Amino acid sequence: MQVRFNQVAVAALVALGGAAMAQETIEVRIGHVGPTSGAIAHLGKDNELGARMAIEDLNAKKMKIGGKVAVFKLFAEDDAGDPKQGTAAAQKLVDSKVHGVIGHLNSGTSIPASKVYSDAGIPQISPSATNPKFTRQGFKTTFRVVADDVHLGGTLGKYAVKNLNGKSIAVIDDRTAYGQGVADEFEKGVKASGGKVVGREFTNDKATDFSAILTKLKAANPDVVFFGGMDAVAGPMLRQMKQLGINAKFMGGDGICSGELPKLAAGSMGDGQVYCAEAGGVEGEAKKSMDDFKAKFRAKFNADVQIYAPYVYDATMVMAAAMEKAGSADPAKYLPVLAKTAGYKGVTGTVAFDEKGDIKNGALTLFTYKGGARDQVAVVR
Length: 381
Known about the structure:
By secondary structure, the protein is α/β, with parallel strands linked by helices. It has two domains: 22-146 and 284-361, Response regulator (Rossmann fold); 150-278, Response regulator (Rossmann fold). It has helices spanning 2-22, 41-61, 83-95, 107-120, 149-162, 177-192, 211-218, 231-243, 261-265, 286-301, 309-326, 331-339; strands at 25-34, 64-65, 68-78, 100-103, 124-126, 142-144, 169-173, 197-202, 224-228, 249-252, 274-278, 344-346, 349-351, 364-370, 373-380. The model is unreliable at 1-5 and 8-16 (pLDDT under 50).
């Protein structure tokens, strides 16, 4: 009996040891930064929810990294769309020893923060920063999963002339890295397509009164007005254009291309009068995965996707996949694998990075608004 008892005890200990080995875990800390306060908090929260959804899905998968079950933990920070707060948030994440960062939302915060991450050797994937400079600073840690402003602004400029028959085009920007950058590229696109820019004005990203610049532009009688900036400023601008009797078509980049814009414009958008582009796009078979994501997002958070939550989700998944392939969450070990990402199938399509960290063959989706909702016009590559 004693021998039998000892055999049972040993077997139990072996089983327990095996279970303990099987459950050995590694904590993986993922940082996310976006403006979850301020005028564009609705966009920042949308991004953060995309990250939370990815973290939940990764933990449900029980992914193994280096033979250990990875337990992903999100470290979320608010940069309020402010460059100084952005670098402070970046340093906080570095001090928290995160293994990677998804963000920031704005180019104006992503660019200065990218140096902080580069100095610390921590990979950063932005789901939405489109200023070309972001990936042209020589940092090996910097990536993005959307097309840049050269593509976005240039395509919109060409569209304004060729498709909207813009003969006299006015340009306004908010003087942020994003707004000015996309407006500059738009202007180049207009001129390259044989269009004429009849006025260039600027405001700031917190302005609410545009009567002076709009009155000045009205005298030039533009048939298209382009705004480089975010939806929180574009909404009031559209209202004031209507009040002043400016009947031009209104265009903008991804910053205005949200589901919230009709509310911010408060009934000042006619059907087919506002056009924008999102730096990303799906078509064909990939459209189903995006539609499924949006339905899942809606069911989970009781909110519709604004713009970039799916790109945040894919960025998080791409980072995790690189860790899994490298067998390590150590930034120095998985960074070279991340840089070679060549065919990750995500909800936004296939993710592959070039030598700068830009997405290869990045798509754009052109939208207009009808009945107070975004209406897809075309996907352009």
